[in-house]
Amino acid sequence: MLTVDNILGPSGRIAARLKDYEERGEQLEMAHAVQRAIGEQKHLVVEAGTGVGKSFGYLVPAILAATQRGEETASTGSRSQKPPNAPAKRIIISTHTISLQEQLLQKDLPLLNSVIPREFTAVLVKGRSNYLSLRRLENARKRADSLFYDEREFDEVGKLQQWSTQTTDGSKSDLEYRPRAAVWDEVASDSSNCMGRNCPTYDSCFYYRARRRVDHAQILVVNHALFFSDLALRRAGVSLLPDSDVVIFDEAHCLESVASDHLGVSVSSGQIQYVLQRLYNDRTNKGLLVHYKMRDAQIAVAECIQKAEDFFQQAQDYLRNHARENGRVDEPQPFANTLGPILDELAKKIRQCGSSFDEEPQRQDFTSSADRLTLLSANLQQWCGQAVPDAVYWMETTETRRGNARISLSAVPLDVGPALRSELFARVPSVILTSATLAVGRDHSFDFFKSRLGVTQSDELRLGSPFDYQRQVELILVGGMPDPSSAKEEYEGKLASLVRRYVDRTDGHAFVLFTNYSTMRRVGEALMPYLAERQLGLLSQADGLPRTQMLKRFISEPRSVLLGTDSFWQGVDVPGDALVNVIITKLPFRVPSEPVHEARLEAIRSAGGNPFGDYQLPEAVLKLKQGFGRLIRSRRDHGTVVILDPRIQTKSYGKVFLQSLPDCHISFEAAD
């Protein structure tokens, strides 16, 4: 009988295959816990320190469960209606970052497929809009003169036409360049613009070809965003993903944030303008209605564009004069929803326009546009009427590249726990939640993490890292700095000189992590003369360079200093000597006035809780653990983590941060 030990043990199949195999007792312990949870249909929370190899720790028992044909597989209670050849157990693995998905699909799963003597299939599931529609591409090519304005857009349609004959995948990730949004939106697969089996390109459709692979695969790899989009749609009786017997969330520390975004509602002036101008753009005289010479409908769209401008001007006036300083809106119907009914009327008119065609392909374009208008109207109605229960509502403005103001109306649930309890943990027999950072404090408690996600019944396992942090890491705590909460200007005034001190010790090779862009920008400007003098490179997120390009340049030019904010605290892997110094400028407490954060603190306070101890502190601790974890990614790595925030020494809660970090050598240094 094939077991976890046969594969992962010191005498197992992986040990026999890999020359540089390292025995990992923690990995084997995790694999046994995951196997028990799947077999007993329980939920499991696992913190697995860096270096445990947690992906194998959950993949091996997942593969064994999914390939257990003919053996006893307990009733799952799942609502799944599986195809005849569907697996005995279907496993969904959800990650937050693309880099982890690539690791699973390009490295881990192929290796396991080669050493486990059972047949299994694993596929990456992408959202439908990632796939090219051959029928829509042909329509866009024929109607290009009335759809596109920029010469580069015409060229791109031709390039996509050529690519469509060569690609086997048909998804955006198979392209060597990033397609323009205006072009891709005209050629992407779209549920409301799909003819299904009636489509002349159905047999060669990239999306349905991928869907058939999904329906018969044992292991589905998705990202958190797609998973929670599916969960939100299930409320309306629709689904993107097949039902599963097991869901494994890696990078589970991100779940509350992603779930909140997808269980709420959001609509912006930019979204509405985009949908309307795809129908008719009076500035360029382009759009679907121009192609078919539907003058009355064009006039209706132009009127709707004007109404949208009036509505969002009204919203901006409310934001300026009546909303809270942070944009929060506390009352339903803060201003009249004059736009929703107009969008509904236009949707009816567009459907009528489509019904005049005998051919279904032409009708589909109008149906799709009408569906988008109806959805936007529904979102407006939900937001204005504050129809999302127990949610926080807010407005914000952002400036576009052209200097225009874009207004967004957003709402997210204050607590995603109830929704996840009923729609995830009660529906899926076994949910595995794992990350390197889930526990907080001396007791390494999972209470904060579980309470935020609504986990009431689960097994728990905490596994330390096999790395020797006492030997590999020096944690430097800098005393004598001004308090960043009470003496912000003085604190920021000293930051650049201290960053120089610690960058100088390692000749670059450093990440400097910030909690906001403005401080990062000012410190970056102050560092420039010093870095130029030392001929050290500067990579700052404030310059707008994409994260992946920043990382590539940092690895290829290690005598560099990388300044990063939120996205560099987690999900970034730079093993080896390129990174030997992580400088944390400030303990990562979120700004209390952020709309969602403020509302959650108010809810905790009104329920009799302690907002700081129950929410702000454990949230910041988990993020600090993520930032600390950027340094050591292998047994060969070494270096220093420097914390410039004095509160970790001067405040009583500082010990909670220190107790939550791996046990390493601590040095104390003075700012002056």
Q: Would you kindly provide a written description of the structure presented here, covering whatever features stand out?
A:
- With 672 residues, the chain is an alpha/beta fold.
- It folds into 4 domains: 4-121 and 217-258 and 418-463, P-loop containing nucleotide triphosphate hydrolases (Rossmann fold), CATH 3.40.50; 128-211, no CATH class; 265-387, Four Helix Bundle (Hemerythrin (Met), subunit A); 469-670, 3-Layer(aba) Sandwich (Rossmann fold).
- Helix content is 46%, strand content 13%.
- A 7-stranded parallel β-sheet has the order 3-4-2-5-9-1-10.
- A hairpin with a 5-residue loop joins strand 7 (391-399) and strand 8 (405-413).
- Helix 11 crosses helix 12 and helix 13 (269-279) packs antiparallel against helix 15 (295-321).
- The chain is globular, with a radius of gyration of 27 Å.
- It starts with a helix and ends with a strand.
- The relative contact order is 0.11.
- Mean pLDDT is 92; it is low at 70-80.
The tally of helices reads 27
Cross-sheet strand order for the largest sheet: 3-4-2-5-9-1-10
CATH topology of the largest domain: Rossmann fold
CATH evolutionary superfamily of the largest domain: P-loop containing nucleotide triphosphate hydrolases
Mean pLDDT across all amino acids? 92
Any descriptors?
27 helices, globular, 4 domains, Rossmann fold, seven-stranded parallel β-sheet
Brief overview:
By secondary structure, the chain is an alpha/beta fold. Strand 7 and strand 8 (405-413) form a beta hairpin.
List the helices and strands and how they pair.
Elements: H1 4-8, H2 13-17, H3 25-39, E1 44-48, H4 54-66, E2 91-95, H5 98-115, E3 122-124, H6 134-142, H7 144-147, H8 151-164, H9 181-187, H10 206-216, E4 219-223, H11 224-234, E5 246-249, H12 255-263, E6 265-268, H13 269-279, H14 288-291, H15 295-321, H16 340-355, H17 360-384, E7 391-399, E8 405-413, H18 417-425, E9 430-435, H19 447-453, E10 459-463, H20 469-472, E11 473-479, H21 488-506, E12 510-513, H22 517-534, E13 537-540, H23 547-556, E14 560-564, E15 581-584, H24 595-606, H25 611-628, E16 639-643, H26 647-650, H27 654-660, E17 665-670
Parallel strand pairs: 1-9, 1-10, 2-4, 2-5, 3-4, 5-9, 11-16, 11-17, 12-14, 12-15, 13-14, 15-16
Antiparallel strand pairs: 6-8, 7-8
